[in-house]
Amino acid sequence: MDPREMYQRKLILASVAAGIVNSGDWIDYGVGASHPVAFDQALAARARDLRDVKIRGAFTLWMPAIFQVEDPGEHFCWNSWHYTAVDRKILDMGCGFHSPMSFFELPRYYAENLDPVSVAVCQVAPMDGDGYFSFGTSPSYQAAVFAQSEIRIVEVNNNMPRTRGSSNVAIHISQVDFVIEGPNGDLAEIEPSEPDNVDRRVANLILEEIPDGACLQLGIGRMPNAVGSLIADSDLKDLGVHTETYVNAYMDIASRGKINGLKKSIDRGRQVFSYVLGSRQLYEFVNENPDLMATTIDYSNDPRVIAQLDNFISINNAVEIDLFGQVSAESNGLKQISGTGGYLGFVMGAYWSKGGKSIVCLASTYGRGQQTKSRVVSTLSQGTITTGHRTLAHWVVTEFGKANLKGMSTWQRAETLIGLSHPDYRQDLISDADRMGIWRRSNK
């Protein structure tokens, strides 16, 4: 059957699609900018008829309509793989929960561990002439969701870029049950934050550790973005990209001619990613870009794949680090801030890479005035999640310096990390280290 004919036969209204949902069902919204719009609004309109509908999503960029209804917790339960400010609001409303995971294994979770998905729905790019819908900005794990879902629905958005790559970053019309044509609104954007002086000082220290021909992974946030800006203005050359999230910084570096991927041992000449997040200009840049290679996270984030790339440089933010080298990149006490995301896979991959460096960057303090606190702490506080355990601690950078913790004993780590902390907190940290038995008397 001709793809266009199949398309017309499967085309339905969002209200009809939402009518398929029953109380108690598990629904999947996908990730980030691919979350459905028309379907979500139609499902919200049915709230009074539904109870205990459980929805999975990740990196929520706007408040879903289903949580703007009266008493949303009576009808819907949100389960997020990775928190944003919106996800935290849903949690505070009493309707949301975090789903801990190892991101590179998420497709396997859907195949082997999770309750069956009743309805999977996400935004996609318009169907091409061969009948394929690109997952666009968010191929991360969508193919795995659709593969084990009872009902598969795509919501077409003409503004969704078409990204090229591996075979499982698109889905054929024959593999979906229904098609919705959405309102074609602009995709959710996140403009890079302007780095401050601390960000720039940290970025300059990191730049010194990046050689020509390095393969880059930049996390989300001001500091990694500051590093990207410095790289764009630097004399570095022959850089490669293998990342989870493709952000504006890569576009800026590529536009300066510094990325060609010619030194990569695998995927030579291609910039590998599994998720796009940034400005409208970035979405236009990735559309049908032959230099980019969209993949799913069981490839982009797999440390066994990353380790094959020599001189792999992974740069990620952290919330806190303690004197043992344990890193929290996702919570502050019991407050879930983000999630493990790709942190673990990229840290492990960089750690194993020949010439690789896993770099954790953080400002030495947070807060203002009397509320200022140190990000270098004696031990992670009760309830704080350890995202990176101490045996994987590698490079740590603050505005006060940088250090490679690999191979250091506990007293060496304590001394080194205290030296990276803000001077106002060093004496207290020394006292704590002494009390914990990880401070040598010969130390000054």
Q: What does the model show?
A:
This protein is an alpha/beta fold. The protein has two domains: 179 residues, Glutaconate Coenzyme A-transferase, CATH 3.40.1080; 239 residues, Acetyl-CoA hydrolase/transferase C-terminal domain (Glutaconate Coenzyme A-transferase, 3-Layer(aba) Sandwich). It contains 15 helices and 26 strands. The strands form eight sheets. A seven-stranded parallel β-sheet has the order 4-3-2-1-5-7-9. Strand 10, helix 8 and strand 11 form a beta-alpha-beta unit. The model has no long low-confidence stretch (mean pLDDT 94).
Blueprint (SSEs and pairs):
Elements: H1 3-10, H2 14-18, E1 26-31, H3 38-45, E2 53-58, E3 76-80, H4 85-92, E4 96-98, H5 106-112, E5 117-124, E6 132-134, H6 142-147, E7 149-156, E8 170-172, E9 178-181, H7 197-207, E10 215-218, H8 222-233, E11 240-241, E12 245-246, H9 248-255, E13 271-273, E14 275-276, H10 280-286, E15 292-294, H11 297-300, H12 303-306, E16 312-317, E17 320-322, E18 327-328, E19 331-332, E20 335-336, H13 343-352, E21 357-361, E22 365-366, E23 373-374, E24 376-377, E25 395-398, E26 401-404, H14 410-420, H15 426-435
Helix pairs in contact: 7-8, 8-9, 14-15
